[in-house]
Amino acid sequence: MVRKITLFLALFCLLGAVQAQNLQLHFDPRNSLYGNEVGSKNYLTATFEMFKPDKWGSTFMFVDFDFNGGDKRWIGTVYGEISRTFTIKNFPLMPHIEYNGGLGSGFYIPSAYLAGFQYPFQLGNFFMGTYVAYKLNAFETSSHDLQWTVTWNSTLANGKLSLGGFADVWSANKNRVTGEGGKRVIFLSEPQIWYNLTSNFSIGSEIELSYNFARLEKFAAIPTIAVKWDF
Predict the structure, then answer these.
(1) Model confidence over 41-98: pLDDT tens digits?
(2) Which of 1, 45, 55, 113 is deepest in the core (most CB within 10 A)?
(3) DSSP readout, 189-214?
(4) Which CATH number is 33's domain given?
(5) How far from 47 is each of 129, 140, 144, CA to CA, in Å?
């Protein structure tokens, strides 16, 4: 398992090195807020994020490294997403493909494969995007589902304040092994707010808002304390 995590890290570092945008470090207090039901401990999460537009569309990726392994807080979980959208001349919708997945110490986060259409738009000072996609959750019994996503990004106060984030709603099999028992609906959103001390360095917060997420059948709100470096 350690070897698999190492290979996973190497892959995403190689992808990110092409067009790195920012590195974030978050303190996650989930155990203090919700106890062992949500997490056995508080921990740090490092996030590497990249967005690269080009004349054919855009590529987005991020990878989270959770320092929640053992008493020494080594990297216990790695999760990443990479997506690609394509521009079609004189057509408002953009084909969208995406992969999600991860590894942990003694477990894995099932892969998910998405394909759909994205629509970019602007709402005041906010650059927005939304897409609807077919989602194949690669559980023991494959789960054929739909996902709807909204993203947003804005810079305010003469560049001193940055807002961003996403909201996802998707379905998945309640029973990952047999596929029986019908579907459940999952909600996840992570709005971010940053105060830009310089053009490179920011302090801020991300709030993980979720329902039915990670086997927790209730609503949870977990704010972080974070710093960010833009490259």
Answers:
(1) 999 999 999 999 999 999 999 999 999 998 888 999 999 999 999 999 999 999 999 9
(2) 45
(3) E--EEEEESSSSEEEEEEEEEEEEET
(4) 2.40.160.40
(5) 21, 28, 29
Q: Looking up tokens 């996973």, which residue turns up?
A: 8
**17: containing domain:** 2-230
CA count, 13 A, side-chain hemisphere, 7: 5
Identity of the amino acid at 177? V
Look at the block and give the residue holding tokens 């927005």: 128
Which of 3, 68, 74, 10 shows the shortest CA–CA distance to 214? 68
pLDDT score at 17: 43
Cβ neighbors of 16 (< 8 A, separation 6 or more) are 48, 50, 61, 63
Q: Which residue matches tokens 């969208």?
A: 96
How far apart CA 187 and CA 169 sit, in angstroms, is 5
**Percent of the chain, pLDDT > 70?**
91
Residue 8 to residue 108: CA distance in whole angstroms: 12
Exposure b/e, 32-49, CB count within 10 A at least 16 = b: eeeeeebbebebbbebbb
How many structural domains is the chain composed of?
1
